[in-house]
Amino acid sequence: MLTKRDFLRSVSLAAITTVVTMPKCAHAQNAQVKLDHAQVENIVRRSYQYVAMYNVNNKAAMDARNPLSTDGWNKFHKSTELANANMHAIARPNNDTLYQIAMLDLRNEPVILDVPAFDTRYASMETSAYDGYIDIPLSTRSGDYKEPTKLLFYSARTQGYTPDTKVAGVGKSLAMTGDFVIAFIRVMPESSNPAKHARILEQIKDLKVQTLSEYQGKSATASSKVQFPAYGATDQDTYGTNLLEVMQFVFNHTTFDSRNELDQALLDAYRPLGVEPGKTYDAAKVTPIDGATFRQVSEEVKQANIAILGDQRKAEEFLFRAFKPKGHMDLATLVFQNVIGPIGQPADEALYLPVNPADNKPMNALHDYVIKMTKDELPPALAFWSVTLYDTKNGWFIPNKENKYSVGQNAGYKLNADGGIEIHIAANKPDGVPPENWLPINREDQGISPMLRLYQPDLAKATTWKPPKAQLVS
Questions:
Q1: Nearest to 456 by CA among 224, 17, 120, 90
Q2: What does pTM read for this prediction?
Q3: Could you tell me the CA-to-CA distances from 86 to 30, 83, 122, 198, 390 in Å, in that order?
Q4: CA dist., res. 367 & res. 344, Å (int)
Q5: Please, what are the averages of pLDDT over each run of 10 residues along the chain (474 residues)?
Q6: Closest of 421, 414, 456, 454 to residue 436, by C-alpha
Q7: Sign of CA pseudo-dihedral 372, 374, 377, 379
Q8: Which of 92, 260, 316, 334 is most buried (most C-beta within 10 Å)?
Q9: Which is nearest to 295 in space by CA: 243, 241, 341, 240?
């Protein structure tokens, strides 16, 4: 098992020292703070989950260019098609399930989601606030989605609501750790079954979001105005431009636990910079930091964690520990999780395994590859599995005129006569290869990275099963 100490030793970063000086109008006790490289890296690492989820959640609610945009809070985005190459809202999106997203503002009153009974072999709901901890309140694995369900969401700061309040018709009440929340529903579209697929598309229409007042037939409580700090096009942009402003906002809308070591270490790291829960951000009163240094260190932390995907053993250790609730995560796994892609599920729901090259050389679109699995080597998934191809730099799909980004149950695949499969990553479809089993690339100098997903994995088998390797063809 990779320990925190082992991980830190594996990341070799050049020493940097940042000297930050308070403006004259600031408090005297903060007149000068020196941050060496270790302190900057500590702040970057402890902030990564918050920066990543701040950007993901706010882009989903407020960025009209986002293909997943809800166009506001307490609204739904409903997808009836699988994601394509325009999906840059999140790193490593899937091409397997239909994304249904509700963005919730819980400050003024609770919010209720109506969730239908989906006629699919796999569906799940993932929730997270700005702190990046993951809960799965609904899942077919747990026997949910057989009947319509109403869920009530609230936080410790939700006005006029106490947790023991009973609301008629509500099946579950969920205490969230933040005021601004994503409820992310994945629905397997059953693309190979036209009748089921049509029913699922109709059921998606029944998704509904209401405030408690609206649910009770009243007018919704007017939302108090809120000024969001700018979100970043990338997490590195946030570190480089407005980290302290973002984190002050996050602190004011997140529940911190005095008994939680990670919570307290985060607050301790920011206190000398003048950022604490309950304060109002004032650029003249916080300790200024060197944005260029923070951007550089955050990029180094990002690249170090992406490199872990190239080590099958280390990657699997992290992936089996990732995407869990608060109190069940360590810092190294949180950083890895939010660098690779913060919107994910725990191992009992889905496993995200890198398909590494057999020759241990970074995969590049200058070459073609093949991924072979015999019938006995197919992934141990109780629902379904897929292989999806991304670029290494951003974790985005590879654009191609065939609009083919994955091989699997929903995007299409064909087993061979003996029940196995060969998946070809190539600029041109090889002769005799079914188009369903082809992942197109563009012949250019571009790092590429296939990922294998197992939905509802058989964990007893998955812990000993060996993922396939990508073999160099030419």
A1: 120
A2: 0.88
A3: 46, 8, 25, 24, 13
A4: 30
A5: 39 38 39 81 98 96 93 96 90 94 97 97 98 98 97 96 92 97 97 95 98 93 89 96 98 98 98 97 95 97 93 89 96 96 94 93 97 97 97 94 94 95 98 97 97 95 92 96
A6: 414
A7: positive
A8: 334
A9: 240
Spatial neighbors of 415 by CB under 8 A, at least 6 apart, are 375, 421
Residues in a beta bridge with 112: 152, 210
For residue 391, the one-letter residue type is D
> Measured between alpha carbons, how far is 68 from 2 in angstroms, rounded to an integer?
35
CB 181 within 8 A of CB 103: yes
Q: How many CB atoms lie within 10 A of CB 285?
A: 16
pLDDT confidence of residue 24: 36
Residue 283 amino acid letter = A
- The string of DSSP letters for 268-294 reads HHHGGGT--TTPPP-TTTSPP--HHHH
- Per DSSP, the three-state class of 315 is helix
Instruction: Give the DSSP letter string of 150-199.
Output: EEEEEETT-TT--TT---TT--EEEEESBSEEEEEEEE---TT-HHHHHH
**Which is nearest to 379 in space by CA: 454, 313, 436, 439?**
454
Contact, 323 vs 344, CB < 8 A? yes
CA neighbours within 13 Å on the CB side: how many for 276?
7
Element (H, E) at 20: strand 17-21
CA nearest neighbour of 260 among 342, 180, 326: 326
CA dist., res. 354 & res. 244, Å (int): 34
Four-CA torsion 220, 224, 227, 233, nearest 10 degrees: -20
Residue 417, class by beta-carbon neighbours within 10 Å (0-12 exposed, 13-18 middle, 19+ buried)?
exposed
Percent of the chain with pLDDT over 90: 85
Give the integer Cα–Cα distance in Å for 162 and 110.
10
